[in-house]
Sequence to fold (281 residues):
Amino acid sequence: MSNPYAPVPMRVEKSVTETEDGSIRTISLTFPDGTAPFGFVPGQFAELSILGVGEAPFGIASSPMSPDMLDFTIARVGTVTTELHYLEPGESVGLRGPLGNGYPVEGLSGRDLLVIGGGFGFSTLRAFTNYALHPGNRGNFGGITVVYGARNPGLLLYRDDLCDWAARDDMNLVVTVDRADEGWTGMTGTVPAAVEKVKGVKSVLGGRAALVCGPPAMIRYTLPVLADLGLAPADIFLSLEMKMKCGIGKCGRCGIGGSYACTDGPVYSLERLRGLPGEFR
Ligand SMILES: Cc1cc2nc3c(=O)[nH]c(=O)nc-3n(C[C@H](O)[C@H](O)[C@H](O)COP(=O)(O)OP(=O)(O)OC[C@H]3O[C@@H](n4cnc5c(N)ncnc54)[C@H](O)[C@@H]3O)c2cc1C
Ligand code: FES
Fold:
């Protein structure tokens, strides 16, 4: 029987600074024999570990359509994340995963989608968006509108993806910053205010759904806008960032009511969350 606590030793291929202040980096990891031994769905996460330092959970930021190299976008906030920022190409990092449930890609099939993210919470939504835009999958979804925000232009992630998505005619991309700087020519304002504006581009193909991940304040102010747009709680999916330890439903650290966010989540419908204790009721 394989040990669920034993990490796979991954090789660091790339480490890229995402933000002007250097606080967020994306590392790209490959498997020991070059090929992924598992598939995953967007929205799942993994535990990354450095020997003698510790282990922490991170959303998988790359698309399941490129499973052999996994991206993780890491905000430097403490011990493990700082060490992950220091990793250089060729070095090794442990990985346990994929963990959690991910976004309900099958249930989203045929629907118009609003993808709403802020901060590093956008990482798994980037994975979802690139998955949905893949030529083999694009036909499975209706209209796709991505609303992404950062506090300022220097904190925007995934600039290559944003350029690619902006050039496509099969999706809408809305990027907003809370505070503009001199060179910024795009939208200014919060994510909930930007979602309010996309009312104009809503289409009515096959029933809509929203995928939301970001800071709690962003989520709290976005939910009433989604209700105004007519989305039911069962059509709104939130990815939570509870404190986690084991990631496999053993330690109880991530409990909300009768649910463990590491196994039942981290993605919950708002309808399900409203049946649990917590802040999105
Ligand atoms: C499912 C999931 C997905 C996540 N995805 C990402 C991601 O894609 N990118 C990213 O940068 N971060 C992500 N996080 C948060 C990340 O796990 C924490 O930032 C990390 O555990 C901090 O570890 P540390 O040792 O650097 O910090 P510590 O030295 O342990 O603590 C520093 C600070 O971080 C807070 N913190 C510690 N552990 C957690 C935790 N598990 N969750 C939230 N805050 C914590 C502490 O309260 C403290 O304020 C995710 C968390 C979860 C549960
Ligand atoms: S992190 Fe241990 S039960 Fe969820």
